[in-house]
Known about the structure:
Elements: E1 15-24, E2 29-39, E3 44-48, H1 55-63, E4 70-75, E5 78-79, H2 85-91, E6 95-98, H3 110-121, H4 126-139, H5 155-166, E7 173-177, H6 185-202, E8 205-209, H7 213-219, E9 222-227, E10 230-235, H8 237-242, H9 246-262
Helix pairs in contact: 3-4, 3-5, 4-5, 5-6
Amino acid sequence: xxxxxxxxxxxxGTIRFSNVxxxxxxxxxxxxDGLSVEFPRGKLTYIxxxxxxxxxVTLKHILGLLRPDSGEVWVCGRNMSTLAGRELxxxxxxxxxxxxxxxxxxxxxxxxxxxxxxxxxxxMTEEQxxxxxxxxxxTLGIEKGFDKYPNELSGGMKKRVALARxxxxxxxxLLYDEPTTGLDxxxxxxxxxxxxxxxxxxxxxxxxxxxxxxxxxxLADQIxxxxxxxxxxxxxxxxxxxxxxxVIQRFxxxxxxxxxxxx
Length: 263
């Protein structure tokens, strides 16, 4: 994948939580309670659970936006709690991130949106940037229209551009924050297909924070269900469907009922 991915690093693409505890409101609201897990390297893991159980808090710990009250979070061999300032910013280069709203710059073109991280953080020539941006866009199925602006794009096309930007610097880890929330059914299918394409083409360590059970069942290598500050379930989609865990069954049944109502 190139020099920026540090593939010779034995810790490349690794994420590990060791007995992580995080509470808010002076310790009254415990969100993570001794969370320990090592996410499978090079695999796609969906983190599921109802709203408010700590999925986003887990993601923020991985990014170094939150620090645990106790325990450790290790990403690519570095303890995130020991990093700050420029060192933390430098280490975040291991991540590619797809935000829920795509987070594109409205006043610059598709091409310039994807090129932005290269212009900001590398010394690449214009020729190198053009070749790399074109390859990244084509990986996501965009062959033309590079001079269009985000407000000219459909929801699905915006996600394609945002993902092209997320992979432009060849990250070791891809993070997706509620990638299908609020999307129409057609766009949801498009985003699922994009996630599946990147899973197949890049084989990165990928984490998806989501409520989207159908997508998780179809795409995930592993499903992690967050409940009570820990992962109450960890396993394959098939095992997830078969579990007799009461909270998970309620979660699954609520989703089934929502689809029944819409029929």
